[in-house]
Amino acid sequence: MNTFHSTRSNDQMVTAKQAIRTGIAYDGGLFVNDDLGTANGPHIDIAGLMQSSYQDIAYSVLKALLPDFSEHELRECIEQAYGDQWDDTHITPLKPLGDDWILELFHGPTSAFKDVALQILPRFMARTANTPDVPEQTAHTEERIMILTATSGDTGKAALAGFADAPGTGITVFYPEGKVSQIQQLQMTTQQGNNVHVYAVRGNFDDAQSAVKRIFADHEFANTLQDDAHVALSSANSINVGRLVPQVVYYFAAYAQLVQRGAITLGDPVEFVVPTGNFGNILAGYYAKLLGLPVAHLTVASDKNNVLVDFLNTGVYDRNRPFYQTTSPSMDILISSNLERMLYYFSNKDEALVAKLMESLSQDGTYQIPEDMLKRIQTIFSADWANEDEVNEAIASCFASTGEVIDPHTACGYTVLQRMPQRENVAARILLATASPYKFPRVVNQALGFDHTGSDFACMDVLSQQTGTQAPAALRGLEHAHERFTEVIDIAQMQDVVRRAAFTL
Ligand SMILES: *Cc1c(COP(=O)(O)O)cnc(C)c1O
Prior knowledge:
Thr_synth_N_sf; about 40% helix; about 500 residues; binds pyridoxal-5'-phosphate; about 15% strand; alpha/beta; five-stranded parallel beta sheet
């Protein structure tokens, strides 16, 4: 059952539960599973899943990738995570988009795709209690987990919604004061739950993020919390195996829906176009391929922060470049953490090479992969990006030609899809839609030529009237929701509020 180890070394093997509980490996690497993609590794019989529900597909995928969870545990997690907090019974419904397809990942409680993973991660976490962090340690039976997150918008709310009142856990979220949208801020400050804490921080996102990293790195602080409060700090970061694995499910669910609609025949190869930032969304598609799904091609769609596009075209990753704030904030990223897992698999599982590349990234902000490795990656992955004018044009032209209203993240993908050559061997192309357009009503209205001068809520109403679509009730209802968290703190106070929160857990 000890099937996971670090991308940077293989001297310490852990179970899936241990990997989820600790999040990141002791040497800073990401947990990976060596079996994946090998003849003896996990494999999914897709023929048996084509008429299955999302929940049954989820069970097959999670069982294959998290073998030490029992059937009962997985079924319980799935039932609780993918229930009626989703406003579509398909969970991730597939719709036609001209000659192509669009898979909507935003029907969860916070209207963004991070719900797919963050609705289930807390349920996994609750079932990792009594699991020692490393094999040779004994378990702290009463230990509870405090999740710390600095957020620039979407992740904070999705994490709050997932961890609210989750047994054995608490969550503290920090967002930069005045730097998130009105809707994003209200989504967080109105969060219900007895174990949640939300603070606005004076500073920008990087300041808050760096402070959270310092808190995690403070071993003395960790020991105090451990000894006196029986609380361990953890993160709900997208590098956690427990966030990656649930995302593999929607690739299978998309394929099953294509077969059910008669759009493809079982076995036909398909291509996905994936709005990507931290590389988690698209890496899950590669995992689906390694499990046996006929994925012919995976295309990264980036915004103006196009570091991944350059990497996939040249083999050089270089974060030494300007950072742009765009209308697709969740893809404004210069370090794509989950890329490390792809490097591991495409280097033929060469931990030493991955460690060297990551050292180079941390020292110099750049690395270059060997030519033959790049060639192998390019047989499956390609990449393209959209600037902000193209994003606006994509929102407008998508609505004009298909009737679908898309958000700015999805619009990066739409631009890339339209520009892409039609590949010979691909039977269907699927664009992943990662956020509801109602999370970004001002940008969307502007692109569509509608009035965008009022509040975010006025913009929602205009968008609804003009397009005949409906705002998700949870978003529209924020206008009159009670704000629970209004405290603004300095960076220097962050550790103190974490301490306070830990002792009340
Ligand atoms: C997080 C996010 C993405 C990018 O996903 P990654 O896993 O970082 O690749 C794209 N769109 C939206 C709306 C997101 O919230």
